[in-house]
Hints:
The complex is a heterodimer. By secondary structure, chain A is mainly α. Helix content of chain A is 45%, strand content 7%. Chain A contains 13 helices and four strands. Chain A has helices spanning 30-58, 64-72, 86-106, 118-124, 143-170, 178-187, 191-203, 205-214, 255-258, 268-276, 278-286, 322-326, 347-353, and strands spanning 231-236, 241-246, 295-300, 305-310. In chain A, helix 1 packs parallel to helix 5 (143-170). The radius of gyration of chain A is 20 Å and the shape is globular. The chains are: A mainly alpha, B mainly beta.
Amino acid sequence: MSGENKDHDHDHDHDHEHEHPPGHMHLQDPDANVAAIVSDLEYFRRKRLESRLLYMLRRGYLPFANLLKAAQKNPVTEQLIPAQDLDDRIKALQERLNSLVTGILSLQIPIRAGSIAIEDTRFERGDYDERLRLAKRIYPEPLLERLAAVEKVMLESEFLVATIQQALINSGEVKAGAFDERIDALKSIGWRNGARIVARAWVDPDFKQRLITQGRETVRELDIPPGKLGILGIAENTDSVHNVVVCTLCSCYPHDLLGNPPWWYRTDGYKERVIADARGMLDEAFSLKIRDGVEIRVHDSTSDVRWMVIPQRPTGTENLSEEELANLVTPESLVGTALAGQTPASAANVARGLDGVL
Amino acid sequence: MSETAEIGRFAVGDLVRVRTSPTMPTINPRTPPYALGHVGTVIKSYGIIVNPQDHHLPYKALYTLSFKASEIWGPKATHVVVAEVHDEWLDPA
């Protein structure tokens, strides 16, 4: 899980897709792209945003009346007029989702002196008790109706984030400006930290050994803040072992070091299939065929031990600099659903491969 | 995160069976359901870990266990599942 890392989380995993100049990317499969947005929107709304709000209300950190007062003055109330072009409309939603997720994660700022353990929030949001689980929204099937429904929930969630932030400031729980600082800090944590760690491990076997035996403190050598969410598990791919990471109980990941995992990491489809049929799922959803002689190890992360994969260094890269090597690492390769130096499967491919069980 | 010298009942290489309920009341519900009742091998022992971001109190000693997926999901599952489980969820196998 977990997600409840109060201290560090990060902007969204789609960010590597956004490195292309806007307009450059044509969406091959609008349905699959919208499915990915719905999956993430629902995850963050139910597991992070609304459950966090309930948590604060129940414990009295945020009185109901303060929330209502803040809502009255909230500037986020009007829906933007959606773009005419379907691609533009979907891309606009992807960008809003990125900002929304960062906003939601900024709410995990420590409030008052009370100690909030990750365990508390997981109980609260129903990870262990279905009766406490927030209901999933039903989105209509036809694409245009579906998009309109997503835009509506997006706006409601943006409204809720801004209202909670304002209410916490008004209540004196959080200083004005603290959320902006938090969002800036979150944006500096990302999977590129993982790419740098992997590249150093490739060129420096002693570093790799220290990383495996001593864990996350080792990344200080790269001037990367090590974070403090549980133990960092290091799973190294070799000629005979291919490692894959999942968190079947929630969505534990070393967020504080590597930012957010790819979007499908949080989906039920991925969790259920990878744990029971890793070889078949890697092939069907990720177009990754692992030879029969190679053992696949699926690491089921918990908040106690959060795993990352060191992918194999591609052949023919002997002359590359450490920086060039880091460019071969992708967020997907850090969880073992792609090889380093290989283009990861598209969102559409993954959504289809997971049978739409998102 | 620091580890104490206090170690649990099992050592690396031991076969353990995951209990369907813990040996003592615990607020730790985190054992994956698919592993309940199955036998795994201890591949790493952490002792009692301190994880204040997560727990209010220290839990019992933590181990990394390795399971053959074929024993849980049948012969088609050719992979290995690696999961962390605390001491109070385990019996000697």
